[in-house]
Amino acid sequence: MSAAARADEWRGVAAGEVDDFSPSVAGLLRRRSRVLLARLARPYLGSMALAAVLILVRSAGYLALPYLIGLGIDQGIRPGRSGNPQTLVLIVGVLAIALLVNALANYAFMRVSGRIGANILFNLRRTLFAHVQELSLSFFERYTSGRIISRLTSDIDALNELLATGLTSVITSLISVVAITAILIHLDVRLGMVALVAMPLVVGLTYWFRVNSARSYRAVRRAIVLVIVHYVESLGGIRAVHAFRREPRNQEIFEDVNARYRDANIWSNRLASTFGPAINLLGRLTTAAVLLYGGYLVVQGQLTLGVLTAFVLYLRQFFDPMQELSQFYNVFQAAGAALEKLAGVIEEAPTVPEPSSPISMHEAKGAVAFDHVTFAYREKPVLHDIDFSVPAGAVVALVGETGAGKTTMARLIARFYDPTAGRVTLDGVDLRSITVQDLRRAVVVVTQESFLFSGTVGENILFGRPSATRGEMEQAARAIGAHDFIMAMPNGYDTDVRRRGVRLSSGQRQLVAFARAFLADPRVLILDEATSSLDLPSERLVQRALRTLLRGRTAFIIAHRLSTVEVADRVLVLDAGRIVEDGAPAELRRDDGRYSSLHRAWVESLA
Length: 607
Prior knowledge:
Structural class: alpha/beta
CATH superfamily of the largest domain: ABC transporter type 1, transmembrane domain
Helix content: 55-70%
CATH topology of the largest domain: ABC transporter transmembrane region fold
Oligomer: single chain
CATH class of the largest domain: Mainly Alpha
CATH architecture of the largest domain: Up-down Bundle
Largest sheet: 6 strands, mixed
Number of strands: 10
Distance between the termini: 60 Å
Radius of gyration: 35 Å
């Protein structure tokens, strides 16, 4: 497999889109998962050492109980002979101390391990959220919002279960199995050999369960992602669902993904229900064999009753952890599959990285140039050898049919993407040499989506420049004509817009987005179909504001409504990723070219 194919497969696994993958990628997943877990745990090595000591003390107190019971029977009760009450009282006292030590160590361990787990998950959520925000737009084009939410919720929850209970169970179980094996051999070699006869079967069952449970839990994680994705997309587009009577089809799709999730869980439960009872049966058969042979040795006087009692109790402690391991495998495999996905997201690198040697751009003037720029989405060419320059303060309209490349050019100016060939410059400096912070301060994009965050109208406007005063915020709103409708709302600028701004009309949301952009006071302003949601009165109001607000600022306007284009000094007409016309709007209207044709079609559409 080539490196590129392996990288694509890795990204597919991380996105939850690939379930069965090559051995090389499987090994890479395990290594990267371990590296991520080690990195998260590194700050807490001291606390983990304390937790290890506490778990050893707890295990020692727990493992001492059968031995003390057997000792009490042989030394304090002495079946067939006179007992020794003082010895019995002393042994019972030691047993009580062992129980107390076990309880206190368990309490302290749970406190320490709980704090470690909570801190690790806190840091993981913080790291993941910060990293996802820094990733480029290409990442969000490959990932659906449902998959990202799944990483931040269900995958984190799977790790939470591992850290909260799974690791405690497996460490205790491993200590118990190793210690009890040594104790059994020490108590009586003959009975120890009888007990260990079942070990090959136990090992074989454990290997079978481990291999199959890994596959089943990857299927579970993949299925739950599909359920979450469908939930998020259906509820996010609920207006379209109701408008087009999509409910039956959505229910049909949900029944399918929900059935996959159910079947994956049934498979996983079937494995656990086979492994657990099989271990339990082996344990009971082993105990019966030990009782039969040990009883014979006691009758023959070759073994004391106390030793046999202790041996049987230790056998119970030996096989109980083996059964718990089946539950741990469930938790471990779920967490392992989740960790693979999380590691994949964290391994994602921005496709527009920060420059290694940045050039300071605190006071940009706004001159923009495309220097023989070619760009392709996943090897599909969109722009071809675009070459032009725009002086600072010029207003340029990008015009063309849908798919001509207008929005792609805007995204390159904002450096949401980097060119495949050539370069885009701001004041003669390649955008790839400017820090993202300086570039975002110099270039602002307003799209037709006009996304508003939960909060007040004023908070959404201040999002453009949080340090602005209330007076500056209101001045920006007045400039673009939003002040009057805002003041007419119940609480003015303090009115809660609710989730995604549903309290405002689409035109009002667009005006708030304009005010936010104008308050940011960028040197370069990109309006990508930014007036498409406005009615005609609002559009005329914005056009009047644009002539004043765009003065002295470089602007790129993308619009199908050619009335908006009239404020431009220059028009670039695009067709199939190439500039086919370049000139002032009035000049291009007089020519019998592409822009003239588009303008006539627009005028006819108004009639």
